[in-house]
């Protein structure tokens, strides 16, 4: 096995497959665009094995990068949707009470950073003003920003619970739990 081929399998195993699992857990779906890229990866790798054409490995590398890029995009959208749902569900809770007043400004800051990184990546993609490698880095930056935002929200569950239980603006008991196996914040409101 040549080094480039080994790297493709490694990226599939260590990057793409975990991202797919995360997307399935978050959104209960497997985006068809990512599936198509994976199909293309293994089509090119099988051609390489059967026909010994090394240019097929180069094609498989491009599809691998594209699959990872699609994972970045889908995860950004998924996390943005989670934050929007959180804000809707907690609009009647005085989140200024969370973490001694530091939670909401930090949530706003992290969300702003993530949104800007994603918008910038999308602008560059639409304008086609950067190379494929630069575009990959821009979407990776956006994903990392959204991932930090998601982690912050997950880590703030006790502060959110405190604000929920002490908020005069809320007529709901907000139940917050974290699934130990996936560490995703699950939010639900129980109305009285």
CA-atom Rg in angstroms? 20 Å
The secondary-structure element order is HHHHHHEE
Q: Low-confidence stretches at least 5 residues in length (pLDDT < 50)?
A: 176-192
Average pLDDT works out at 89
The secondary structure category is mainly alpha
Helical content (DSSP H or I, runs of 4+): over 70%
Largest sheet properties? 2 strands, antiparallel
Tally the helices: what do you get? 6
Overall outline? elongated
- What portion of the residues fall into strands of 2 or more residues? 5-15%
Q: Would you count the extended β strands for me?
A: 2
What does this protein look like?
Helix 3 packs parallel to helix 5. The chain is elongated, with a radius of gyration of 20 Å. The chain has a two-stranded antiparallel sheet. The protein is mainly alpha-helical and 192 residues long.
What tags apply to this protein structure?
single chain, 192 residues, mainly alpha, 6 helices, 2 strands, elongated
Please give a quick description of this structure.
With 192 residues, this protein is mostly helical. It has helices spanning 3-27, 32-51, 55-89, 103-127, 132-155, 157-166; strands at residues 172-178, 185-191.
What's the structural blueprint in terms of helices and strands?
Blueprint: H1 3-27, H2 32-51, H3 55-89, H4 103-127, H5 132-155, H6 157-166, E1 172-178, E2 185-191
Antiparallel strand pairs: 1-2
């Amino acid at each position: 096995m040549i080094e480039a081929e080994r790297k493709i399998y490694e990226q599939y195993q260590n990057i793409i497959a975990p991202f797919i699992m995360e997307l399935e857990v978050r959104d209960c779906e497997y985006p068809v665009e990512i599936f198509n890229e994976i199909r293309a990866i293994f089509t090119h790798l099988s051609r390489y094995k059967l026909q010994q054409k090394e240019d097929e490995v180069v094609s498989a590398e491009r599809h691998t990068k594209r699959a990872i890029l699609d994972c970045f995009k889908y995860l950004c959208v998924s996390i943005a949707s989670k934050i929007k749902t959180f804000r809707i569900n907690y609009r009647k809770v005085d989140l200024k009470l969370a973490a001694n007043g530091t939670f909401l400004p930090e949530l706003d800051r992290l969300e702003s950073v993530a949104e800007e990184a994603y918008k910038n990546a999308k602008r560059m993609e639409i304008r086609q003003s950067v190379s494929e490698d630069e575009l990959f880095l821009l979407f990776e930056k956006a994903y990392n920003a959204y991932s930090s935002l998601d982690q912050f929200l997950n880590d703030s569950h006790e502060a959110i619970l405190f604000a929920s239980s002490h908020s005069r603006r809320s007529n709901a008991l907000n139940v917050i739990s974290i699934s130990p196996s996936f560490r995703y914040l699950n939010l639900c409101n129980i109305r009285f």
